[in-house]
Design brief:
The chain has helices spanning 27-34, 49-54, 83-99, 108-116, 207-224; strands spanning 5-8, 11-14, 21-24, 39-42, 58-61, 103-106, 120-122, 138-143, 156-160, 166-169, 174-180, 183-189, 194-197. The longest helix has 18 residues, at 207-224. The chain has 225 residues and is an alpha/beta fold. It has a nine-stranded mixed β-sheet with strand order 4-1-5-6-13-12-11-8-9, sandwiched between helices. It has a two-stranded antiparallel ribbon with strand order 2-3. Helix 3 (83-99) packs across helix 4 (108-116). It is globular and about 45 Å long.
């Protein structure tokens, strides 16, 4: 089999009237993989997680609930903490770092890169009084660094916005690539194939979104060689 296998982090729902747990993933993430003739592989934090990670050529860490701020030495002021989600995202990221596996972090995914790699987050960008103008859940991002990826993208373009947290202190080895006023909107690692994006390119599929996903899949192919 020559098709790429893309590991995708799961998110969870609970039926509090029973013992049921549900895995949930927005189909838009899966479509980005399938439309590029690759295989989406939903990961789960079980006894075979190491074997599952070894099967993957790349990872997408998707959006979701807040990360426990204990990972960046703060008390929890947030809601929706899910320990199992933190655990799987951290294991994916640790494996990606140690094996140089291309990884795209989207929304919570960029926040995971900061929280688990010695950076930190604003637990609420509005309580922090950050300037983050938006209208109808959309705003523009502005380029602040030149990389192989950003060279393919405009200096400024419209994105969607569905977050109340953001990167505060950059994680080790990263640079900021796009911002919206006071808020970091995209980062890239300087030596590892790690890309973090605060907006949801899979949901608001523009030409810029296509460029980002195409670049990511080309990066996977380069590293697979």
């Amino acid at each position: 089999m020559n098709k790429l296998i893309i590991g995708i982090s799961p998110r969870f729902s609970h039926d509090y009237n029973s013992d049921y747990h549900y895995v949930r993933i927005n189909i838009d993430y899966l479509n980005q993989v399938i439309h590029r003739d690759a295989i989406p592989f939903i990961l789960y934090d079980g006894p075979n997680i190491d074997a599952a990670l070894q099967m993957c050529d790349g990872f997408i860490i998707i959006g979701g609930d807040d990360i426990n701020p204990k990972f960046y030495n703060e008390n929890n002021l947030s809601k929706g903490i899910e320990e199992i989600t933190d655990s799987i995202d951290q294991k994916i990221l640790n494996y990606a770092i140690s094996h140089h596996i291309p990884t795209l972090g989207i929304c919570r995914g960029i926040q995971a890169m900061a929280a688990f790699m010695n950076g930190s987050l604003y637990q609420d960008i509005y309580f922090a009084n950050l300037n983050h103008p938006q209208e109808n859940k959309k705003h523009y991002v502005t380029k602040v660094s030149n990389t192989k990826l950003t060279s393919l993208l405009p200096e400024s373009f419209l994105v969607n916005s569905y977050h109340h947290q953001s990167v505060k202190d950059l994680p080790d080895g990263f640079i900021t690539t796009f911002v919206n006023q006071d808020v970091i909107e995209a980062i890239e690692h300087q030596t590892l194939p790690l890309i973090g994006i605060q907006w949801h390119p899979e949901r608001f599929y523009t030409n810029e979104s296509k460029i980002i996903f195409d670049y990511f899949f080309n990066l996977i192919k380069e590293y697979k060689k």
